[in-house]
Amino acid sequence: NIDYTAVNLTLVKISEEINADLNSLQWLLSAYVLVWAACVIPAGRVADLYGKRNTLVAGLIIFMLGSCLTGVGQSIEMLVIGRILQGIGAAVFTAPAWASIFTLAPPEKQGFVMGIIVSFAGLGLAAGPTLAGFIIEELSWRWIFYINIPIGILVIAILLLYSPKEVLDSVKEKIDYVGSLLLGSGLCTFMYGLNQIEVLGMHSYRFWQVIGLGLGLVVAFILWNRRSKTPMLPGHLFKNKPFMAVTFGSFF
């Protein structure tokens, strides 16, 4: 979360080193968000099938590779590719991170540990710009990305040393690739449309085309998900009132 808000402050410094216009630089923010939104739910399904710890470690490795590539990047294209990798890595480790913390805690402590994580998540978002300013002033904007690598290595080491191995089912359910494609492309297209409001204009025909396509793909996913033998989003989830209340609260 520190990294998420810290990147905003790097744009001016990056533009001084790498020749790119504002719309291109904006993709350093947008690429991460779009890929995360498209991949986070399918990645949660992968964690169900292959184990939370394995998926968490894999996501951290992908995130670290993306951080390294963004840090060493000498062109806007390389920086954006690095941010895409970061978004994929973050999507892969998000669900198993929360699930691992919740399931490894005893029932009477689950609310407490989740409260700690939410508190630190908020602190990370708030502290990002301040720490980014310090790092840019004292080191370089590249260290905003490099710093993820030693932290990631530390987390992986703790997971391998202290997190218990999971017993996986010998018979695995199949991943719904069609559903994953519909949901991922729908969310990504819709988020892209929202992200390009300033470029396309709210009253432009193209903007509403992109938004309509994104919503259409999401509707197609909902219809497909209802018929799928291995639904990515179980229907009973939407009947869970506390879950839906928290979801709407988070959205607004």
Please count the beta strands (DSSP E, at least 2 residues each).
0
Biggest sheet architecture: none
Helix content: over 70%
Alpha carbon gap, first and last residue:
19 Å
The helix-strand sequence is HHHHHHHHHHHH
Number of helical segments with 4 or more residues: 12
Mean of residue pLDDT values? 85
Shape: globular
Radius of gyration, whole Å: 19 Å
Fraction of residues in β-strands: under 5%
Low-confidence stretches: none
The class by helix and strand makeup works out as mainly alpha
Topology of this structure?
Blueprint: H1 2-6, H2 10-17, H3 22-50, H4 52-72, H5 76-104, H6 110-138, H7 143-146, H8 148-162, H9 177-195, H10 197-200, H11 205-227, H12 241-251
Helix pairs in contact: 3-4, 3-5, 3-9, 4-5, 4-8, 5-6, 9-11
Short descriptors:
single chain, 252 residues, mainly alpha, 12 helices
Brief sketch in words of this structure:
With 252 residues, the protein is an all-alpha fold. The protein is built from twelve helices and no strands.
Q: How does this model look, in words?
A:
The chain is an all-alpha fold and 252 residues long. Helix content is 78%, strand content 0%. The chain contains twelve helices and no strands. The protein has helices at residues 2-6, 10-17, 22-50, 52-72, 76-104, 110-138, 143-146, 148-162, 177-195, 197-200, 205-227, 241-251. Helix 4 runs antiparallel to helix 5, helix 4 packs antiparallel against helix 8 and helix 9 (177-195) packs antiparallel against helix 11 (205-227).
